[in-house]
DNA sequence: TATAATGGTTCTGCCTGGCCAAACGGCGTT
DNA sequence: AACGCCGTTTGGCCAGGCAGAACCATTATA
C-alpha cells in the first residue's frame, strides 16, 4: 500500500488513543494526552464520542476498550471461512496433545492469529487473537510461506525484512529459502525457538486445491518438557492429520 | 450518559462508515458516501486512513472490515473475566443438549452477546458475538434483571423502554415485574418466543456472591422440534447445573 | 471500436470544526 | 486550609476535513 495522500489525522488520533488504552489496560485522559501529544480536551472529546457508542467505556476514573469492538472483531474473523472450519480441529488437537494450538492467517505480508486453543498442559504465552507477527520468525509463518510462490515470498521479505526475534531466528535469505524447500518436502515446519526462546513448535499449512497456503495451524511446547522423540516423531503426524481434515472440509464446501 | 458537548464529528463519521461496511458486508466508496451523506473524497480519505493500519482492507473494488479489530474485540471480551470461566461450560452445554447456547452480559442497560456455542442440532440464528439486544425481550435479559435491585431495573426500563420484539414480548411493566418475581423464585427464566418468533429458551443467571447477576447463559430451541416435557422438565436442570459450575468457579478464583 | 456510464482516486480552495490553552470544579493529600 | 492532580468546560484561532470538480480505469452498450 502506497502512502496515503490525505490521511484523516483525526481518525489516526482516535486509533492511537484506542491502541494506547489497550496497551495500558485502561487509562485516564491525562495519561493518554501525554502519549499522544495532543491536549487533554481533544482526548476528552475523542473518548466521549467513542463512549457514546460504547466503543470505549468509562470505569471509575479510567477509560477502557468497549465491547462494541467485539461486534466488528468477531465479524472480521468470521469473514475468513477458514476460521469456521478450522476451529473444531484446533480445539480437538489442543485437547489431544494437551498443548497450545494456534491458527494463523497471512494478511498483507504479516501473520495474524485468528484463534488459539489451550490443552491442559499448554504454555501460557502472551499471544492473543488479532496479534500480528512476522512470518519468517514463526513456524506458522514458515509453513505458509513454504507454499507460496518464491517471488511472493521475496516481496514479503523485502517489505518487512527479517528481524531476529531470538538468536535462533533465521535472518539469512538463502538459508531461509532452503528451509522452505525442506518444509515443502515434508509438509510441515519446525520452529526451533526461532520466535520465542524456549519454545518449539510444529506447524502445518492449510492449502487450497492448488497447493497455495491459506493458513497454518501449530502446536507449541516448551523445549524442556517435551522430549525430542515426542516432538519430532509423534507431534508432526498429529498436526498433519488435523490440518488434513480441515483442508478436506474446506475444499469441499 | 449525558449528551456529549463537543462530539468529534470526524470520529462519528468513521464509526458510521465502519458500521455500514459491516452491514453491507463490504461496500464501495460511492455506496458508502451515499448513506453517510458525505462526499466521496471524504469517505475515501477515511478508508485509506483506516486501511493504513488494517482496520479495513480493500478486496478488489470493495472495502471490508479488517482483522485489526479482532485485537481490540478479543481484548474487550477477555476483560470480562466471566468469559474465560464460562466458555468451557457453554461449550459443554451445547454439546450435551445439541442446541444453541449463548452467554450474555449487561452493559449500560442493554445485553451484549459475549459468546455462543452450537450443538449439532442448533438453530441457526443471526446472533453474533458483540450483538446488542434489549434485556426485557430475551430470556437472558430477564434472567439478569431478575437478580438486580428493582430500582435499577426501573432505571433501565425508563431509559430503553419496552419495545415489542414479537407479539409475545412483555410490554407491560407490572406484568414484567411479576415475571421477574417468578424467575427469582425458580432461578431460571423462560423465554416463550418473546424475542424471536418460533424460538423458546431457558436462561439462567450467573450471580456473584451477593445474588447480583453478572451474566446469563441460555439454551435456545425451536418450539416445534422440542416438546414441552424436554423443554420444561429437563432443560432447566441442565442449564442450572452448567451455570452453577461457572458461578462456583468464578466466585472462587 | 467508439462512447457512455459507473466508480475509484486526485486536486484545490473554502470554511468548518478540531485543537490548544486557560480556567473551572471535584477529590484526595499534606 | 491550601495545594496538587485530573477530568471537564469554555473560547477563539487556524489547521485540516470536506465538497466539488476534474481525472482515470473499467465495464457496458451499441
Overview of this protein structure:
2 copies of one chain form a homodimer. Chain A has 253 residues and is α+β, with helices and mostly antiparallel strands. Chain A folds into 2 domains: 9-66, Winged helix-like DNA-binding domain superfamily/Winged helix DNA-binding domain (Arc Repressor Mutant, subunit A), CATH 1.10.10; 76-250, 2-Layer Sandwich (Beta-Lactamase). Helix content of chain A is 48%, strand content 20%. Chain A is built from 9 helices and 8 strands. Chain A has helices at residues 9-24, 29-36, 40-52, 68-78, 81-97, 139-146, 150-160, 173-186, 228-250; strands at 56-59, 62-65, 100-107, 110-118, 132-133, 189-192, 199-207, 213-222. The longest helix of chain A has 23 residues, at 228-250. The radius of gyration of chain A is 20 Å and the shape is globular. The two termini of chain A are 32 Å apart. At the A-B interface, α1, α3 and α4 of A face α1, α3 and α4 of B.
Using brief descriptors, characterize the structure shown:
DNA-binding, homodimer, Arc Repressor Mutant, subunit A, 48% helix, 253 residues, alpha+beta, 6-stranded antiparallel beta sheet, two-stranded antiparallel ribbon, 20% strand
Amino acid at each position: 500500500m502506497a502512502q496515503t495522500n490525505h490521511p484523516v489525522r483525526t481518525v489516526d488520533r482516535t486509533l492511537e488513543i484506542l491502541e494506547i488504552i489497550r496497551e495500558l489496560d485502561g487509562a485516564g485522559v491525562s495519561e493518554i494526552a501525554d502519549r499522544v501529544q495532543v491536549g487533554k480536551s481533544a482526548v476528552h472529546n475523542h473518548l466521549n464520542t467513542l463512549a457514546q457508542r460504547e466503543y470505549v467505556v468509562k470505569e471509575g476514573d479510567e477509560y477502557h476498550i468497549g465491547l462494541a469492538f467485539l461486534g466488528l472483531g468477531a465479524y472480521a474473523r468470521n469473514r475468513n471461512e477458514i476460521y469456521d472450519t478450522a476451529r473444531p480441529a484446533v480445539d480437538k488437537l489442543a485437547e489431544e496433545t494437551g498443548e497450545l494450538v494456534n491458527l494463523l492467517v497471512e494478511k498483507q505480508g504479516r501473520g495474524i492469529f485468528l484463534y488459539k486453543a489451550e490443552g491442559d498442559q499448554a504454555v501460557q504465552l502472551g499471544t492473543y487473537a488479532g496479534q500480528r507477527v512476522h512470518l519468517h520468525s514463526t513456524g506458522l509463518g514458515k509453513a505458509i510461506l513454504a507454499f507460496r510462490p518464491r517471488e511472493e515470498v521475496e516481496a514479503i521479505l523485502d517489505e518487512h525484512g527479517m528481524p531476529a526475534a531470538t538468536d535462533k531466528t533465521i535472518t539469512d535469505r538463502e538459508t531461509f529459502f532452503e528451509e522452505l524447500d525442506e518444509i515443502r518436502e515434508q509438509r510441515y515446519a519446525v520452529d526451533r525457538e526461532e520466535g520465542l526462546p524456549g519454545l518449539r513448535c510444529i506447524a502445518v499449512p492449510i492449502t487450497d486445491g492448488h497447493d497455495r497456503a491459506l493458513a497454518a495451524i501449530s502446536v507449541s511446547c516448551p523445549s524442556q518438557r517435551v522430549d525430542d522423540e515426542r516432538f519430532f516423531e509423534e507431534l508432526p503426524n498429529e498436526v498433519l492429520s488435523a490440518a488434513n481434515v480441515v483442508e478436506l472440509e474446506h475444499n469441499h464446501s
